[in-house]
Amino acid sequence: MSEEHSALTVSLSQLKLASKKLGLDSGMHKMLSQPKRTISVSIDIRMDNGCVNVFNGVRVQHWDARGPFKGGIRFYPNITLDEVTALAMLMTWKCAIADIPFGGAKGGICVDSKKLSTHELERLTRRYVSLIFEYLGPQRDIPAPDMYTDAQTMAWIMDTYSQLKGYRIPESATGKPVEIGGSWGRTEATGRGVIHCVKQASENNGLKLKGSSVAIQGFGNVGYHAAVAAQEIGCKVVAVSDSSGGIYCKDGLNPEAVLAHKEKTKSVQKFKDCKDITNEELLELECDVLIPAALENQITGKNADKIRAKMVAEAANGPTTPEADKILYEKDICLIPDILANSGGVTVSYFEWVQNLTREQWPLKTVNQKLEAKMTKAFNDVESIVVKEESDMRTGALMLGVGRVSNAIKVLGLWP
Ligand code: NAD
Asked: What is the pLDDT of residues 350-365, one digit of tens each?
């Protein structure tokens, strides 16, 4: 397959492989290949300078056989419908792998959020929610943060939904601030979940994690919290990066100090005692664990052969192309796929939804213990398929996710 293939082409070919291995009939395969609903909207907002601007938004709802649609909303200038559809499909498999009662969705607005003021972003978010309102709701579709959206964005989404309904509905969005029903531990969950998978993979493969070196591409929500969690279990974070480039220090760096530096200077680069490196150099570093936590298509047919990490844990969605997958597998590099590795976020989103529905708030310790138990179980469920099928981890994870969703559709039957 050529690397020019789109995200959706890749997701569809992954589905085809899993369907074949699971022996699904062509009707089931056709049903799973299509999203249930795609909503495209034009979002008109008044900018701070008084002019009106129009932004394009989309929400794709893939499948809801196991529960309400669930998935992030990203603000990004170059979003395509194709990419959002692929991500919605991956969410369906991810929720099934994590064994939480949700389906899959994804949404986004084509916008460079750095160019908008906070007031403009608030108007943009609220108008978008009003346009897709009838398809949202705690039992229909529950948004969460993704690239360039955060807890504040979720607060606006939940508040807009509640205003339009006429009463407060905290369970209508997850990843909210704790003050309004957010769960303790949600912000850290995706990054922490990645490290639970790395820990489990190391235990299962007899690798020693204490003192091992970790390189992380992307120092946003996921990358930063993965760095903190890696350090907590005794790993050395030797490199991190953001859109402006990366830094390397062979003795390990302190994620909190790098974050403070980034907040001050807007970049991780030029951090004391570290060498500035490019994002390409970071990926090719000699290290034990490589965590791509930024964008898709970072490890490709062009650079996969130069990857020297022993393990790659995909914190970002789709960071490895199919060509690169093959090369890494042949090089015997353990690859923990995105649909498993980054499922910690949606898992704690599920905990948040449960807490909101029951009007409870669990302590951080409870959330973290439950997260570790869920991640470990998901990892081992995938691993048993990998062993049985003698497959790579991505195929094993897809078989688990697609298998659980198709089983749910089978028992639900078709109405009418
Ligand atoms: P974020 O916006 O908080 O951070 C993104 C980071 O990537 C920033 O540090 C940015 O500077 C960096 N970046 C952007 N372009 C880059 C480039 N060309 N090279 C290197 N770094 C670059 O986003 P996030 O929430 O941390 O999400 C990161 C990835 O994880 C995305 O693929 C997202 O879909 C995935 N993910 C996020 C969650 C979540 O809970 N936030 C859950 C599952 C998956």
From this structure: 999 999 999 999 999 9
